[in-house]
Each structure stands twice: as structure tokens, then as C-alpha cells.
Amino acid sequence: MTRSEHSSRLALAALFVTALVTAQLLAVKILALPLPTDLPVVGGEIIVPAGVLAYALTFVATDCYAELYGKRPAQLLVNVGFAMIFVMLGLLWLAILAPGSPAGVDPDLFAQVLAPSTNVVLGGLLAYLVSQNWDVAVFHRIRERTGEKLLWVRNIGSTVSSQALDTVVFVVVAFSIAPAVVGFGTALPAGELVALIVGQYLLKLLIALVDTPVVYAVVGLVRSSEAGVRTTPAD
Length: 235
Description:
Elements: H1 3-26, E1 30-39, E2 43-49, H2 52-69, H3 71-97, H4 107-114, H5 117-146, H6 151-182, H7 190-231
Helix pairs in contact: 1-2, 1-3, 2-3, 2-5, 2-6, 2-7, 3-5, 5-6, 6-7
């Protein structure tokens, strides 16, 4: 493996894990994004977790990684990210349970804000296993049919379908099942769950369309960089 390829792999893996862990912490806040016109189900605004953009970056990273390095390395990356969520959750609860000092944030407020992240992590873990592995599998199933052509079809097809699975599993577990079982936060009523699912998926569809040029640019940049390194004569 050349130094350029090693750096590219490390950068994509770092982006993936950073975005993944950040999304778990940000998702406890719910955003209300206004729309220019009312839409069915969601009305005049889209309700989404604040971590939706960070989580969308994980699919950009895995699609780039899968295109550049293959299915098995991409699945390994997904599994490493899965393990890092447990590390983040363990560190979070160590911070919550550790004795607090008056010099910092009020310990009760700290726990009140961050403890519901456990619900998000539980929903995210299940959704993550389903959606990320589905994303890699669909990406390579399409690639088997298209060869190296039509990267945009692989990127959009895998992301759109995997994001649908991810959204339904995540919202139902994180904002309905986990609060009732674990006891942190309050379960949302059915109407709000549906609005959250639809709103989050609409935004993810938009991101999937927008991120396609980004995937092309990253893959093209990495391949040209690696090709340049291979053709450069040794000193």
C-alpha cells in the first residue's frame, strides 16, 4: 500500500467514525426546518434530529470507501464504527456517573441533556447494523451489474434504500421503544413519529442527491493522487 493510499484510507475512516459518533450525541436535539410550502404529513416544516447531517456524511464516507477499496474493507469499516459507538456510550456514562464539581456544568443538567443519548445510541446501533451493511451490499450488487461505470447510480441507489431502512428503524427505536423500555425521556406519539420519519427521510433524499458530486470528486481525487504516486519514478 502506498503512502497516498494509506493516507486516503485513514482520512475516510476518520471522517466516517467522527461523523458517526457526533451524530449520536447531536440527535437528542430535534430541529424544525421551515419549508417554503406545506407538504402532506409534515406540513410547513420538516422535523429532524440535529445529527442527521453528520449521519449522512457516514454514507458519503462508506460509498467512497467501497468504491475505492472494495466490499470487504467497507464492511470492516462499518463494523469498526459499530464498536466505536459502544466506546462512546461507555465514556458518556462514565462522565455522567463521575462526581461533578460546582466549577463546571451542573451534574443534574449534564445528565438530563446527555442521558437521552442512550436512546439515540440504542436506536442508532440497530439502524446502523441494518442500513450500513445494506448500503455496502446494494452498492456492490449494482456495481456487479454496471462495472466501473455509473457511480452515480450506485451511490444514489444504495443510499436512498439504506436511508429508508435507517430512518424507520432509528426513529421508532430511539423515540418510541427505547424511552419506554430504558426510561430516559418521553416516547413520542404516533403522529409525531410519522412526521419525524417522513421529514428525516425527505432531508436524507436531498442530501443523497447533493452528495453524489461529492462522492465523484473524492473518488476522482483519490484515484488521481494514487495513480500519480504509482507513476512517479523512484529517487
